[in-house]
Predict the structure.
Amino acid sequence: MRDADVFATLYDREARTVLVFIARRTLDPELALDLTAETFAQAFRDRRSFRGSTEMEERAWLFTIARRQISRYHRRGTVERRALEALGAQMPEAHEDDLREIEEAAGLDVLRATLGDELARLNDDQRAALQLRIVEERSYPEVADALGVSEQTARARVSRGLRALARALEPQLATGEDA
Amino acid sequence: MRILDELGEELVRAARAAEAEPAYAQQAARGRRRPLVRVPRTVLISLASLLLLAAAAVAATLVIGRGDPIPPAPAGAVPRELRPVPGTERLSHLDVADPDGGPAWDIRISRSTTGAVCMAVGQLLEGQLGIVGLDRRFRALPTGAADTCSTPQRIGATLASARAYRGAADPSAAGAVHDLTAIAGVAAPAVQRVTVVAGGRRIPVRLADGGAFLALVSGLPEQLRPRVVLTDGSGRATTLRFADTGEYLAPDPTGGTPWTLRARGGPPPPPPCGTRAPPRSPRTRTALRHRLPRDRPRLTAAVPWPPLEPADA
């Protein structure tokens, strides 16, 4: 069997799961679609580096690529399309219906509501620190200045806030991975 | 899911094509080719930069001439909302490549006397914003003028426009011209990602400091039916549409005018459903308008035609 045939089978089996997995971690259907495309393009490009033999190992390998895509996006704030462009593939146009379908498949409404609840549950200090650092993307010295605390305290508040949110959302995100 | 099926078909098609291509297979097997002589990277980069600068300067001098600057409109003819305050102008440094090989494109942002955000779209030559006409002459845009202005918005876009230009595709090919649409705007501060969809193609665009974004696409707005998707940090997307007719556009595989797909039903069975948009009359004047709800600013996209005629034509 040719590589492209194996790739087609892998895509048919895993595309929806990967899309839901990414959508639940980015809360953005369009972005999830972009990252899914890049994930599969990278999987095809790096196919020779896969050392496993079972479907489970294949899935774990694919999710590792997807996770790397998400963290790279969070770090750089842009979607990379290197593998997609090298492959010569073009993104199909996503319509509103498609994005709504992804929202529903990933249960983003529920997840957003949960995130809102958990944010409300944080103490005021942590919430303010997260607002400044994550939403407004200010530097730690700026966060510390705005809150009137030391930089070390600002870092601790952001870190504790994120850990609390991660703990609360973990069960829901795990559901996304199993979807 | 329709979109996943389409994506899968495209990826598998590309994978099959890549597999069939010997160069791709060889490259994948061997990795990147190393240069025969190792030169320190910094030296290479410096040399390349110098060569590029020299080439750009020579090209700009040889190919692009200079015409008289475009005079500003009489002061009384411009309302206060559209009058930038001198000294507030700054370029966005987007440097979007010109498809015709001319100077790169950029957006100049300024503030009006009423506090509105204003923008002017044009090409950059030696630090000046202007437009290269069909005669291949660069004419500077007046500094105290803007294409459009609007009050700053918290979500979506403060400004967005789709504007058509006619460009000289190749100076060596006499009379060869082609249509170009500049999709430009200023996103609200909360926006983190902007995607332009034009002619069925998705184009991620860079957000400059200050929220300016710009994409250049071959074709006219009514052929491309561009839309701008602005996504903020919470994942909320705002979509602005221009010249939208609700028809589905498919990109032309050869990079030409996009195909318009229309659904037809009932007997007899429909013929093949792809049709190309008819060619546009060169003298047609188009005016597009995108209207938002009352509590939002009105965004307009005026499409002048022809955009610039040579002064000595």
